[in-house]
Amino acid sequence: MNCVGHQAPGLWTHPRDQSWRYQDPDYWIELARILERGLFDGLFLADVLGVYDVFGESPAAALRNAAQIPVNDPLMLVPLMAGATRHLGFGVTCSVSYEHPYPFARRMSTLDHLTRGRIGWNIVTSYLDSAARNMGLDRQVGHDDRYEFAEEYLEVCYKLWEGSWKSGAVRRDKTAGIFADPAKVHAIGHEGPAFRVPGIHLCEPSPQRTPVLYQAGASRRGKAFAGKHAECVFVAAPSQKILRQYVHDIRQSATEQGRDPSQILIFAMFTIVVDETEDAARRKLADFRSHVSVEAALTLLSGWTGIDFAPYRPDDVVRYIENDAGRSFLESFTTADPDRLWTVREVAEWVGIGGRGPVAVGTPAQVADMMEDWIDQTGLDGFNLTYVLAHETFESIVDLVVPELQRRGRYKTSYSDGTLREKLFGGNARLGETHPAVRAGAAVRG
Amino acid sequence: MNCVGHQAPGLWTHPRDQSWRYQDPDYWIELARILERGLFDGLFLADVLGVYDVFGESPAAALRNAAQIPVNDPLMLVPLMAGATRHLGFGVTCSVSYEHPYPFARRMSTLDHLTRGRIGWNIVTSYLDSAARNMGLDRQVGHDDRYEFAEEYLEVCYKLWEGSWKSGAVRRDKTAGIFADPAKVHAIGHEGPAFRVPGIHLCEPSPQRTPVLYQAGASRRGKAFAGKHAECVFVAAPSQKILRQYVHDIRQSATEQGRDPSQILIFAMFTIVVDETEDAARRKLADFRSHVSVEAALTLLSGWTGIDFAPYRPDDVVRYIENDAGRSFLESFTTADPDRLWTVREVAEWVGIGGRGPVAVGTPAQVADMMEDWIDQTGLDGFNLTYVLAHETFESIVDLVVPELQRRGRYKTSYSDGTLREKLFGGNARLGETHPAVRAGAAVRG
Predict the structure, then answer these.
(1) Cβ atoms B115, B90 nearer than 8 A
(2) What does the pLDDT look like over B196-240, one tens digit per residue?
(3) Is B213 part of a structural domain of the chain?
(4) Cα–Cα distance between B164 and A65 in angstroms, integer?
(5) Do A100 and B98 touch (CB under 8 A)?
(6) Mean pLDDT, all residues of chain A
(7) CA B44 to CA B268: how far, in whole Å?
(8) Mutate to test the interface with A, among B2, B93, B104, B114 (most CBs of A within 10 A)
(9) How far apart are alpha carbons A291 and A388 in whole angstroms?
(10) Is B4 contained in some domain?
(11) Whole-angstrom distance, CA of residue A47 vs CA of residue A28
(12) N or C: which end of chain B has fewer CB within 10 A?
């Protein structure tokens, strides 16, 4: 996220943490180079367009703790980091709620051109009321209605990306004086409840046309949406049991939509604290924990669940949960160990390092064992690694864990050529025929 | 502009022209480095969010000729080029008509951070009906209403940039665990006819806070808007007489708004065709003219004026003009030489090289003479140089004209330090107290 404190509330205060430099272009160039050195598929940039103001009914705690505020535009980082790398992909969160799809589709096509096909889009429908209010709305649109709206938003984008410019439309023929063949450029003629977009896409086809599509919804409606549209899914679960169920549900949803379930890659949130010895790693974790800000963690938790945690004392036991978002979040704890009672402080500290996902602590071999086990036991495809300290966490993974995984034959030893989609799936730079984007495109061309 | 054919219709077909590479990141990095080598203040990126479909009532001619279509997002180029330069400024056209000011203000703050204070914003209200239609509107909002709307749009941005975060709000204090002081971060509480934005700005103050403000409106309402808001104004006029009047009107408008008229920089569109000898330069121009596409020029002209030139034959004489935009455009020709009759083809060819501005052809000394004369006779501050061939035009200016101007003491010999605003005006990175942005900001803080 283009901010100071992302998933590790309070850790920006650690002497070695660099995340306070988020507004410095060199900070991002350094990060991109570390990840490319470690052969990471991509860098995922989350985003919110609002502030966490549920805690204490004010943004004060968020501001004090830099808890996802200030938060700069993530898309602007992509061309910067693309200029410093050759292979690294970029998955960026953009909400369908706050921009018209016509300029948005142009922006993504532009990024796909400028990155030479390394852009991905994490489709979100947003969750902070504060964002909606600053766009002139009273609150969020209802959860399921947001998915209806997102369906139409995607349809407009798909028509523009996949349907407007036929393959071969661009001739670039200096001698004949013809850049594009107008007969092969189609107006999309979209008319729907939310959008009316009669014209052509403003961009010629980019390497991938449609960016690699990411999604992260864990609700029933979210999983159906992912099954239909997503090529990659981000999940977060504290236990293999919960994760196995997620993976199963998402693949089943894809099957129901007529898609090949093995063609959806599922990445789980995962935090690594690694050192040469187990003792050193455990000391590191203890040091990190001492920098967790309980206030900042509860600020995030309040935003995610909609429950204001400010009135509760740190030693209060979390006995019940008041709404759906809170329930799905707090099930994380109870499911992992149903007999244990959690205090507010313990929940905050647990969120503080690793969020809803597991934390692997130990030597490179121990961490690699745990990663292999999670992959093998759950059907997961890979990990969405969080950082505790910027950029130390990723440096330690690249230097210690990646070589261990390579020795075991569980990690690539070089990048393959091509776009992000080709790197992730092999095969084509463009979406396959069964994907709804390609079908929407075909409908435009008639 | 992030496109193939910008101001020189047809010239993309010239064997030496590189503009067909507009979607290649290296194309832009090369350009940025050429301009920085030449100590240019900045690079100005124009934009439209639509297609020129007035000519022949179809986008076909525009597509055939790459006449400002395809057209990619200009903002994405800024971080890319900023990463390859240290001093070059970036002025980017963004329309107030197509995006909510809340995310827009964040995007500009982000760019100001990432460029370390080198961002400028060319405020436009848009002119293509095709853009409005694809945003779900039937046509453009009326011209003067667009300026009312733009006033409120700016007010929201000003409050966010100048008023929300007080100086000193950000403490970045790891020891105390305080990133920002919430008492110094203000909700802007904006309620207006078009926008309701209650909250705080999502970004901490960037080096310039408000980007350097550019404007290009030549209408009466446009000049009043420029006098109130603009720090830099782009103009285009074919004669010194017309230009002198523009410069006078804009400075007078600034005076009427209580601003120091010398603190507005006015840049005129200007095209340079230079070579070691006058003969060589004239041969170059003739070669360039032979690549002008009359169809492409008329496509642009039709879009600018709203008059469909497709039904007219190339030898038809342009006798009268049917609307305001057409009149102000075609006055360009008649004023320069009131007794001459222009054919459609001649107008197109004139537009083809240099647009509405003068074309300086000759040796470095001749070109420099003409530039000095235009500056001295009109009260102009500088030039907005167009290219005929990408990037040859700018390379020839940097290699031949810049040294000549430096010898004459009319051009800087090195960059000064600081932000774009400091480079342009000396003094402060931030706007002065008399600017309406600063007044809007002060009102937020109470």
Answers:
(1) yes
(2) 999 999 999 999 999 999 998 777 888 889 999 999 999 988 889
(3) yes
(4) 18
(5) yes
(6) 92
(7) 12
(8) B114
(9) 10
(10) no
(11) 16
(12) C
Token couple for A221: 């409606």
Residue B111 belongs to domain with CATH number? 3.20.20.30
Residue A139 contacts by C-beta under 8 Å, 6 or more apart in sequence?
A129, A132, A133
What local confidence, expressed as pLDDT, does residue A445 receive?
80
A177 vs B138: CA distance, rounded Å: 33
Locate B156 and state its tokens: 């929201």
Q: Measure the CA–CA gap between A330 and A339, rounded to whole angstroms.
A: 14
What tens digit of pLDDT does each residue of B239-276 get?
899 899 999 999 999 999 889 998 899 999 999 999 99
For residue A273, give the 3-state DSSP assignment.
strand
Using an 8 Å Cβ cutoff, are B226 and B236 in contact?
Answer: no
In this complex, is the C-beta atom of A197 within 8 Å of any C-beta atom belonging to chain B? yes
Is beta strand A42-45 parallel, antiparallel or unpaired with respect to A89-95?
parallel
Q: What is the DSSP letter of A98?
A: S
Q: Which domain holds residue A145?
A: 11-445
Total of domains in chain A: 1
pTM of the model: 0.96
Q: Diameter of chain A by CA atoms?
A: 77
- Angstrom distance (rounded) from CA B40 to CA B391: 14
Alpha helices in B290-388 (DSSP H): 294-305, 324-336, 344-352, 364-378
How does pLDDT run across A336-369, given as a tens digit for each residue? 666 777 888 888 888 899 887 899 999 999 999 9
- Structure tokens belonging to residue A144: 């399921």
**Does the beta carbon of B311 lie under 8 angstroms from any beta carbon of chain A?**
no
A134·B102 Cβ contact <8 A: yes
Window 27-66 of A: residues touching B by CB (8 A cutoff) are 29, 49-51, 58-61, 63-66
Start-end of H helices in B208-277: 220-229, 240-256
Tokens for A110? 């532009």
Query: Which of A285, A270, A266, A264 is closest to A238 using CA atoms?
Result: A270
Kindly state the tokens that stand for A433.
């025929």
Assigned domain for A6 exists: no
Task: Write out the two tokens for B235.
Answer: 């103009």
Is A202 touching B (CB cutoff 8 A)?
A: yes
CA distance B324 to B372: 32
For residue A57, list chain B residues with Cβ-Cβ distance below 8 A.
none
Residue A329 has pLDDT above 90, yes or no: no
Which of chain B's residues have a Cβ under 8 Å away from the Cβ of A390? none
Q: Give residues 370 to 409 of A whose Cβ lies within 8 Å of B.
A: none
Half-sphere exposure of A199 (CA within 13 A, CB side): 31
The reply to whether A1 falls in a domain is no
The answer to whether A2 faces chain B, any CB pair under 8 Å, is yes
